[in-house]
Design brief:
By secondary structure, this protein is of the alpha+beta class. It has two domains: 30 residues, no CATH class; 66 residues, FAD/NAD(P)-binding domain. The chain has one helix and three strands, in the order E-E-E-H. A hairpin with a 5-residue loop joins strand 2 and strand 3. The chain is elongated, with a radius of gyration of 23 Å. It starts with a strand and ends with a helix. The structure holds flavin-adenine dinucleotide.
């Protein structure tokens, strides 16, 4: 962990990124850091625009679901990264999707039997 530093430049060669120019946020001094690559973390924003404003969501905009992955809109199921939960990983997305698919099938069957 390198504290109190701001990346001011990414310098490279024809092969790609080579080093960063860092500025100390306290003293203003500049230094360089040799790197093999750069990964920029831009944060998260749930891609829920299609149904925005129509479903219950948490403060960050992630869809709230019940244990069947059903949202506050009956018949609309959500799985994976758009769902309000602790982790956003492939393994949890796959598990969510399995639950959502089975729950959706049961939901449709129940609707059909009601008619
Ligand atoms: C840089 C990075 C590294 C990661 N590393 C790991 C890791 O090492 N291990 C791990 O377990 N997880 C990792 N993850 C997280 C993992 O990729 C996600 O948790 C997982 O892909 C979520 O699956 P998903 O199906 O919910 O969403 P996504 O994989 O994002 O799939 C959503 C799909 O919906 C499509 N889509 C969006 N809007 C619309 C629309 N309106 N109409 C039609 N299609 C639409 C998108 O194009 C996309 O294909 C990483 C994520 C990132 C960004």
């Amino acid at each position: 962990m390198i504290w109190n530093k701001r990346v001011v430049e990414i310098e490279g060669t024809e092969k790609g990124a080579d080093h960063l120019v860092l500025e100390d946020t306290v003293t203003g001094d500049r230094s360089t850091l040799k790197v093999g690559g750069v990964f920029i973390f831009i944060g998260f924003r749930p891609n829920t625009g299609v149904v925005e404003g129509h479903f219950e969501h948490d403060a960050a905009g992630y869809m709230i679901t019940d244990e069947r992955m059903m949202t506050s809109i009956p018949g609309l199921f959500a799985a994976g990264d758009v769902r309000s939960q602790l982790t956003r990983q492939i393994t949890t997305a796959v598990g969510d999707a399995t639950t959502a698919a089975i729950a959706a099938e049961k939901y449709l069957t129940a609707l059909r039997e009601k008619d």
